Amino acid sequence: MHSQRPSKTPGSRREAWTGIAFVLPSVIGFAVFVLVPLLVALLLSFTQYDIINPPRWVGLANFARMASDHRMTVTWGNTVIYVAAAVLLINGLGLGAAVLLSRKLPGSMRTVLRSVYFFPSLVGLAYVSIIWQALMQRDTGIVNYYITLMGGSRVDWLNGTTAAMISVIVVDTWRNVGFTMLVYVSALQEVSITLLEAAQIDGAGPWRTFRRITLPLISPAIFFNVTTVTIGAFQIYESIIVLTGGGPGDASRSIVMYLAEQAFHQYNMGYASAIGVSLFVIILALTALQFMLRGKWVHHE
Known about the structure:
Strand content: under 5%
Order of helices and strands: HEEHHHHHHHHHHHH
CATH topology: MetI-like fold
Radius of gyration: 25 Å
CATH superfamily: MetI-like
Oligomer: single chain
CATH architecture: Orthogonal Bundle
Strand order of the largest sheet: 1-2
Distance between the termini: 46 Å
Shape: globular
């Protein structure tokens, strides 16, 4: 005897439509502002298009051009340096600050320090860069004032070939380290005190306890921060525009800056789309690789 499937009640239908109503704006927003532009960029990457004339199909010519474009090589090299510096410095300093703030401190002091470290993350990167641009001026900046006060010579932070890239890395790190610190603080609070006390009873020192117990237990937070910082660093743009303009020459120019230049200054929309597609593929591949390797070092309780 077959049992009849219970029919949906008006209340359950109402709940289903309510759920759809909540999800639909996000789905529409994703389709309009992410999926459709991505598909359009993919199509344009196979064309020669200058906005004025209709797109002309050129196949893989834009991708072949990237292989012989010297500026493309330079900007990709700069971007890789930015990504490596961001992953190491933002995560290293964020974890270090989180460990210090997780020690026994007065509650009010801990709250103040967390707020101070996290506050720059709430400010737009363009505004942060404007402030740092003033601080890093060669003749009137406070940074060089203190360097000369200690007997050093002035550094051309914004126009030197190497100093310009260092300036961008410093500003990007200072602005973003607070967010990673907050994630690490949250993860450290979940570490079992019982395990730490057991390790101390067994004779493990602070460093051994941290390396063998604390790090594995907060590895999901490390994975999250490394992944998000990597994706964000590949798209670095505002701070370079404000601080150095990509100069001197292309010494501090990122791949996103080069993409914007090709699209909105030289109107090579097809070539710019090909650069954007290549950037998307590389970010997607690295993110997928990180998720594939996650099982080898990320531990879940």
